Amino acid sequence: MPEQRYFPEGKRRVETTEPHSAQKKVPQPQTGMEDAQAFESHILERLNARPTVPGFIQAAVELLAEAIDHLVLQAFRKDDYAVKYAVEPLLEGSGPLSALPVRLKLIYALGVISRDEYEDVELLLALNNELEHNGQSYRFTDDEILGPVSMLHGITPLPPQFNSHLPEDGVDTSLLEMQKQRYQQRIRSSLVLCITDLVSRLYHKTAF
To answer: What angle is formed at CA 124 by the lines to CA 4 and CA 91, rounded to 5 degrees?
Structure first.
């Protein structure tokens, strides 16, 4: 997959394509260790509910969209009249802030999020769009996924690529498959930690 495809300029809205049960939005984090743990547990629950790679990335984007909306709303007046007649028209339908990439650019331009955070969210949005439109099935260990994922600023160094150096006639297929599954789980776990940390940091920010 060419590198430039990870950063498209198009302003597509995030669509939900994988069927899943109704979900609760992420509760806003509160102070205290128990509340922080409950907040992170909810994020993990949302991510773990999607077993496929496209579903997982889609869940990550949905979580990030909620965090971004949380920050955008902080920038506007909170009284009922303003929300109903001024704020909602900006965010809904054909409003100027209806597209998620536009809201992302807004909070970055306002200095609410860092450049690294902006680029990580933008990369995940682009990857989600790519997966939605090509319709192919991927594993976390595929180059099409590892390529963009390894570019995330917030991800821990990924484990080295798994390769079997045994000749084909000397390979224990069951052992090989187990090692591949283990490697894939390590990649997924690294991505889970990265996304959980990013969503948590966004929710803990204040617009002003």
So the answer is: 110
State how many domains the chain has.
Answer: 1
Please give the Cα distance from 136 to 125 (Å, whole number): 17
Distance separating alpha carbons of residues 67 and 124, to the nearest angstrom: 14
Domain CATH for 179:
1.20.120.330
CA distance 113 to 207: 9
pLDDT digits (tens, 9 = 90+) for 154-186: 998 887 776 655 555 556 788 778 888 888 999
pLDDT at position 159: 75
User: What six digits make up the tokens of 34?
Assistant: 């128990």
- pLDDT, tens digit, for every residue of 87-108? 888 888 888 888 999 999 999 9
Span between the terminal Cα atoms of the chain, in Å: 39
Q: What's 50's DSSP letter?
A: -
The verdict on residue 15 lying in a domain is no
Instruction: Answer whether residue 143 is part of any domain.
Output: yes
Does residue 199 sit in helix, strand or coil? helix
Q: Which of 132, 93, 144, 96 is nearest to 105 (CA)?
A: 96
Q: Is 25 inside a domain boundary? A: no
With beta carbons less than 8 A apart as the criterion, state whether 133 and 139 touch: no
Q: Which domain holds residue 113?
A: 32-203
Residue 5 DSSP one-character state: G
pLDDT < 50 regions, the chain: 1-22
**pLDDT for the residue 21:** 41
